[in-house]
Amino acid sequence: MKRSILICDDEKNIQSGLALAMELEGYEALVASNGQEAWKMVNSTTVDLVITDLRMPKMGGDELLKRINGAYPRLPVIILTGHGSIESAVDAMRSGAIDFFTKPVDLDRLSLVVKKALSSSDLYAEHERLKEEVAQLKARNRYDRIIGKSAKMVALLDTVEQVAPTKASILITGESGVGKELVADAIHELSTRSKGPLVKVHCAALSASLLESELFGHEKGSFTGAVGQKRGRFELADGGTIFLDEIGEIDMQTQVKLLRVLQERKFERVGGEKTIDVDVRIVSATNKDLLAEIEKGRFREDLYYRLNVVSLVVPPLRERKEDIPLLLTSFLTQFSEENGRTIEGFSNAAKRALLAYDWPGNIRELRNCIESAVVLARSSVIEVEDLPQQIGRAESAGSLSLDVGITLAQAEQKLIISTLAQCGGNKTRAAEVLGIGRKTLHRKLQEYNIDQG
User: Fold this and answer.
1) Which long-range CB contacts under 8 A does 438-445 form with residues at least 24 apart?
2) What is the pLDDT of residue 177?
3) Which residue in 21, 158, 284, 352 could disulfide with 247, CB within 3.0 to 4.6 Å?
4) How is domain 4-105 classified at the CATH fold level?
5) What pTM, to 2 d.p., does this model score?
6) Fold for domain 151-314?
């Protein structure tokens, strides 16, 4: 659908000249002879951008700008002025105009400003659309901190909802940074134990001796430095859930005591004789291959099967790239608010780079990348230059070379084929990268007779 440009000027030759120039650029040109006419058109038809003279009868451009900013703050307005009224044009810029031009108008520069303004409007609209989609996803899911609409994430969340109310021990596996802890949070929140405590232990952060004391507690004098009795994490988690992150790092001695807790729901504090009974659900996570660890004699097979009653695999981000636009929008909104920045979205080049990159650090790396980009962005749009270098290089690696002399249609065909290949044939993701709707992509695939298999 053509974008509509409203041209408001009481000089007929300027009005018709600008209208013709905009039509030659592929826009629909609407015309008005004064601010009053223009204001009626803004309220009665779809207008994507306004170009208005300042001095006109009935209503001038300054009053029109004021009304548009009050009622339609996202509608871009460009001011036209004679050489003697530049000060008025500067005042209009302060009042919200995106740019001003002195007459006679430089049509090449005007075309660039119009294109940039409409692109910015598109970015904002896309950001708002994705924000709404994120909100709808959160409303549909009972646990709203995990964002994803890919088949793998939908299947994972369905399984989480199914197993959360049970008593089964759960082992969550996946690469570092995929969000295993968020899955553990969801299991607890959706369980019948949600009103009880959720106690988290990061096993790799503690030495073997400290970990045993941390898990099971100790009695006064049981070792040097034990100046008093200490309750362990299992006691603190009684009636709730304990989350053992990086379970593959636990030493063999502690594994024996953990196996007993799983089998009997009993243990003794370090240095103690009293047996303590607990009602605790165990959720554990690892980025290691525990079966390989069993073969190497570093992990007990009987403990593995006790922990792995239900297995949940969190997919890496590179296997669910269709979720990236939603994650980008969520993180962009969060970090823009936290840092007091007004960031409207990502340039097409930045989006291509973010989708081309394989994210070895997964969600954690993506989150850190967007926080950094929000802080470093030089304008209201995040560009490739605002992203870490390795991500910018990923966009370059996915670049396309075109021969001089080919038609625009041939160039578009090559771009669509290349983008589809980069996106692994995923048409939804390809459409997002290309900045077009999925229906438009399907139409172009048919138009260019591109194999959709």
Assistant:
1) 441/416, 444/412, 444/416, 445/416
2) 95
3) 284
4) Rossmann fold (3.40.50)
5) 0.73
6) Rossmann fold (3.40.50)
